[in-house]
Amino acid sequence: MTKSIIKTVQQEGRTLLTEVESKELLSKAGISVVETKLAKSKEEAISISEQLGFPVVLKIASPDIVHKSDVGGVKLGLKTVRQVGKAYEDMMKAMKQKSPQAKIDGVSVQKMARPGVEIIIGMSQDAQFGPVLMFGLGGIFVEILKDVSFRIVPLTKRDAREMIKEIKGYPLLEGYRGGEPVNIDYLEEMVLKVSDFVEQNPEIKELDLNPIFAYSDGAVAVDARIVLESAP
Ligand code: ADP
Ligand code: MG
C-alpha cells in the first residue's frame, strides 16, 4: 500500500505528495498523525466534519501548493457546519484570486488538535551522507534561531535520545515555567520510526513533519510533506 501510493504519484509524474497522501503513508508506518480526510466538495467537507467531530481544520489540498497558510489555505478551529461551509467558500475564493493556475483537489478536513509544544522532524538528502534527520522546536526556534540537531539515517536509540537532548530549547520539553512536560520517550520512538520509514522508502527525497504537537502523553503530527526523487 505504501509502495502503491508512491507508485501512483510517480506515474502521475509528480514528486510532491499532498498532505493527505503524506499523512496516509506516515500513519501506515505507525507514525502518529492527526486523522485527515480529503473532501472534494463543500458538502463532503461538512459531512466529514460531522463524522470527525468539531472543532475541525480545513486546508487547501493542491499538488501545486507547498505552503498552505501563505495563500490563506488553512482555517483553524471551525466549530459548526456553518463555519465549515463558509471556510470552504472563502478558501476557494482566495485560491481563485491568489493561485488561479493551481490544480485544486479539494480540502483536507482534520480534527483540531489541542495545543502542545510544537516540534519538527525533517529529513533531507546529504550529498555525502545520504538521508539525514533533523529535530527541532517549531516556529521561531527553527526559523530564526536555527536550534536544530542532525543525525545520519539509520539512527540508533542513542542517536534519537541525543539529538532531542542537545537542542538549546530542551528545557521547554521538560516543562519550563509551568509548561506541560512532554513525553521524551514517545518523541524518541517517533524519531526512530521516521528513520525506519525513510530507510525503507529510498524514493523519498525530503520529508517534513511541521509541526508535531508534543504532549505529556504522546505527540501528533498536524502537517506533513513528502517529496520524492524524480522518477528515473
Ligand atoms: P503550512 O502548509 O502553512 O505549513 P500547516 O498545515 O502547518 O500549513 O498549518 C499551519 C499552522 O496551523 C500549523 O503550524 C499549526 O500551528 C496549525 N495547525 C495546522 N493543523 C492543525 C490541526 N489539525 N490542529 C491544530 N492546529 C493545526
Ligand atoms: Mg506546516
Which descriptors would you attach to this protein?
alpha+beta; binds adenosine-5'-diphosphate; globular; 10 strands; binds magnesium ion; 232 residues; 8 helices; six-stranded antiparallel β-sheet; 36% helix; four-stranded antiparallel β-sheet
What does this protein structure show overall?
Helix 6 crosses helix 8. The chain has 232 residues and is α+β, with helices and mostly antiparallel strands. Strands 5, 6, 7, 8, 9 and 10 form a six-stranded antiparallel beta sheet that branches. Strands 1-4-2-3 form a four-stranded antiparallel beta sheet, sandwiched between helices. The chain is globular. The relative contact order is 0.18. The protein contains eight helices and ten strands. The longest helix is centred in the middle third of the chain and has 18 residues, at 81-98. Magnesium ion binds next to loops. Adenosine-5'-diphosphate binds at residues 34, 57, 59, 67-69, 74, 76, 110, 112-113, 211, 222-223.
